[in-house]
Design brief:
By secondary structure, the chain is of the alpha/beta class. 39% of the residues lie in helices and 17% in strands. Strands 3, 4, 5, 6 and 7 form a five-stranded mixed beta sheet that branches. A two-stranded antiparallel sheet has the order 1-2. The mean pLDDT is 94.
Length: 255
């Protein structure tokens, strides 16, 4: 059974990184060493009680792909539901959009626990949290209001669509293009590969961050932009609209 090294992680944060001095100085508000250790203990409990059991069984089954849809193994939706219910996706996210506003180091420590227990499961919140950070720093206020609350809560997950078949790790060689629409939005044309949690049945919506080049942009990495491409379009009132035309064509034995 997986048992998270909570004492070692807490010691590293408090006495090696210098976080203990910051807590004593009140840098992180009400966060204390005791509360930090309690968070880590609970993250470890989630890993051992909910994530590991379904992860071991899932190794024998794997994800199933059919007609453009991916079905996760038995137990995954329930485990992810426990993750969302516990508010784990919001640990270090901004409070203005429903996050807890804790230091990034706390979130990183929790992610270390979940990925150590099951990297197949842990990659899902890792990608979502990365997408949340990207949107919070770079997106317009309209996009933040539309997408961040449900991504931070974990109701929706996020991805990064970077690699392409002909380009591999040469990001500047991507061919995906973005064409402007009259309403200010864009239509994206292209193909991406190796998209972690690019399709699944854990949530109602998946928010893809897609690298593409606007038609008149320069070549190389300088001309690349990042676009929000939801699996389901989101209406003005926050409800889900019609299915977008970004579809999964196949999956690899990766998760």
């Amino acid at each position: 059974m997986y048992k998270a090294p909570v004492a070692d992680i807490a010691h590293t944060l408090l006495h090696v990184t210098g976080m203990g001095a910051d807590l004593e100085a009140g840098t992180f508000g009400d966060l204390s060493a005791e509360l930090l250790e309690a968070v880590l203990e609970e993250a470890g409990r989630l890993a051992g009680d909910d994530i590991e059991p379904m992860a071991v069984a899932a190794e024998k089954v794997g994800a199933v792909f059919s007609n453009g849809k991916v079905t996760t193994p038995s137990g995954w939706k329930q485990a992810y539901g426990q993750f969302v219910e516990g508010g784990w996706n919001s640990v270090s996210s901004p409070e203005e959009f429903g996050g807890q506003g804790l230091p990034q180091s706390v979130s990183m420590a929790a992610l270390e626990i979940w990925n150590s227990c099951s990297i197949a499961f842990g990659l899902c919140p890792t990608l979502t949290m990365g997408a949340v950070e990207a949107l919070h720093v770079h997106a317009t206020q309209e996009l933040k209001q539309r997408y961040l609350p449900k991504m931070i809560s974990g109701e929706w997950t996020g991805t990064m669509n970077l690699t392409e078949p002909q380009a591999g790790s040469d990001v500047g060689a991507l061919r995906s293009r973005a064409e402007r629409n009259a309403d200010g939005s864009y239509r994206i044309f292209g193909q991406k590969i190796y998209i972690t949690f690019g399709e699944h049945d854990l949530t109602d919506n998946i928010i893809h961050l897609v690298l593409a080049r606007i038609s008149d942009a320069p070549q190389g990495t300088k001309g690349i932009s990042l676009f929000v491409v939801p699996k389901f379009l989101v209406n003005e009132d926050g409800s889900l609209g019609k299915r977008n035309d970004a579809f999964c064509a196949s999956i690899e034995h990766k998760m």
